[in-house]
Design a protein that fits this description.
It is a single chain. The chain is α+β, with helices and mostly antiparallel strands and 256 residues long. Helix 1 packs across helix 3 and helix 4 packs across helix 5.
């Protein structure tokens, strides 16, 4: 018999051992092979060990893996990658003897896109994103938002995205297509507008429903970079500036 805490320990341990060799380095894994690998390290249902089927189902119910349409393959989800990154950080803190809570550095790091997504998500916390200002809004920006949404980040159903004009059709058409697909599938009314700016803009930010703003040094279409990220609280000069700037430019914007 295993208790709930012991089951969680086994579910976690199995992922730490198996995911790097079976899931993180490949696009998908065969269910039979995955079960065999789990059985090889002792998860066969004997004595106090969970059965590999129970472990795989626990991963699935947690949203860390998903099945192929035919049910014969699985692959790791963005949520699973974020959970794996969290476990690694927990283990690192334990090895170093730290007694502090897991730190959330207000900086994005090149080479750590999964960690970067988690940092953005944690800074947004329980707030709802209602507006995004990013001069270089592209289809990749929407992909980033969808990854955040998979981690249960809240976005307004009438989210507004503001950028500068897109001159290349090869960039404009994929953006419009992605926006249409999102609104159709999620039954939302997300909008994108562009406005002309004579200066070269650098500041990017998200406007949150509580009056605060989340600022970032790089565009949301590519977050695999070394950049600072921070949240300006509601009522602060930066947050008030961001809100007014967004509203003023939105009125001048042209829908894509």
């Amino acid at each position: 018999m295993t208790n709930e805490r012991d089951e969680w320990r086994q579910i976690r341990h199995a992922a730490i051992v198996i995911w790097p060799r079976e899931l993180l380095s490949y696009t998908q894994a065969e269910c039979v092979r995955l079960g065999s690998s789990l059985s090889d390290i002792g998860y066969d249902g004997c004595i106090a060990n969970m059965h590999y089927d129970s472990i795989i189902q626990a991963w699935y119910k947690s949203g860390w893996i998903e099945y192929s349409p035919d049910g014969f393959h699985v692959r790791i989800t963005p949520k699973g990658r974020e959970q794996f990154a969290t476990w690694l950080e927990e283990d690192r803190l334990w090895r170093t003897g730290s007694t502090e809570a897991m730190p959330l550095q207000k900086r994005l790091v090149a080479g750590e896109p999964a960690q970067n997504i988690r940092k953005i998500k944690n800074l947004i916390a329980t707030s709802t994103v209602v507006g995004i200002y990013d001069p270089y809004t592209r289809a990749g920006s929407l992909d980033t938002l969808l990854r955040l949404a998979e981690l249960e980040t809240k976005f307004s159903p009438s989210l507004r995205l503001l950028g500068t004009p897109i001159l290349r059709r090869t960039e404009l058409l994929p953006l419009k297509s992605s926006l249409s697909d999102i609104n159709t599938e999620k039954k939302t009314t997300w909008q994108i507008r562009t406005y002309t700016d004579v200066s070269k803009p650098h500041r990017r930010f998200m406007v949150l429903d509580d009056g605060s703003s989340l600022t970032c040094g790089m565009s949301f279409n590519h977050i695999n970079k070394d950049e600072a990220i921070d949240r300006d609280v509601a009522g602060s000069e930066n947050a008030k500036h961001d809100f007014q700037f967004f509203e003023d430019k939105w009125k001048l914007g042209t829908p894509i």
